[in-house]
Write a structure and sequence with these properties.
This protein is mostly helical. The model has no long low-confidence stretch (mean pLDDT 75). α1 runs antiparallel to α2 and α3 packs antiparallel against α4. The protein contains ten helices and no strands. It is elongated and about 75 Å long. It has one domain.
């Protein structure tokens, strides 16, 4: 699966990295990011430059995420808020919190976009609220490119260090990413459980209040 990706990067260099990262964001299952540590190994032999690898990957990632950002941007905040009112319980967002949440994202969503870049799946999904909540495209691209470039620099540096004599570094990269993902997933599940408990309590209170009024 990755051989043709590697061939494109070998043939086109930084342009190949840029194009493969666009593809990886448009079609998340495509394992195009595997080329970044390999390009880092190439930097150890002078074939690539670490900073240029990170820059090409960061720009490609940001451009690819536009494919998800733009339709959400055209959908607009009102439709997105309507969607959240119906399905926001899965995101632990109460109906009365929806407008406040979208207002926050419109002002400070760039930070969320940046922090999600190392996380598979989330870095693509975060483009949807960013677009729908009206985060300016320039701000979105800046944060998406910066976050992706920083993460790509870490991946490329890992490949570089593996090549120059520190192979053990590759052994902890996957477990470290997995631990981060598990922590975030666990936090989400806890918030979801709490959110549902609070909803049940509020429903019970409302039912008891209705019974009291009916009895009175």
């Amino acid at each position: 699966m990755t051989e043709w990706i590697i061939q494109i990067v070998q043939q086109f260099g930084y342009l190949g990295i840029f194009l493969m990262l666009i593809l990886a964001r448009v079609l998340p299952p495509v394992p195009a990011e595997t080329v970044i540590p390999l390009a880092g190994m190439g930097a150890a032999t002078g074939e690539f430059n670490l900073l240029l690898v990170a820059l090409a990957a960061g720009l490609g990632s940001a451009v690819g995420e536009l494919v998800w950002y733009l339709p959400a941007h055209w959908m607009g905040r009102e439709r997105f808020e309507a969607f959240l009112r119906r399905h926001g319980h899965w995101l632990t967002v109460k109906p009365e919190q929806v407008h406040r949440a979208t207002e926050w994202f419109a002002r400070r969503g760039g930070l969320a976009v940046l922090l999600c870049q190392p996380l598979p799946g989330l870095r693509t999904l975060i483009s949807v609220p960013a677009g729908a909540c009206g985060l300016p495209m320039g701000v979105f691209l800046l944060y998406a490119a910066a976050g992706a470039a920083l993460w790509s620099l870490v991946l490329a540096a890992t490949g570089y260090l593996v090549r120059v004599g520190f192979p053990w570094i590759a052994d902890w990269m996957v477990p470290a990413t997995l631990v981060l993902f598990i922590v975030l997933l666990g936090t989400y599940v806890l918030r979801l459980v709490r959110h549902r408990r609070e909803n049940r309590r509020e429903e019970r209170r409302a039912a008891q209040s209705g019974v009291s009024r009916g009895g009175g």
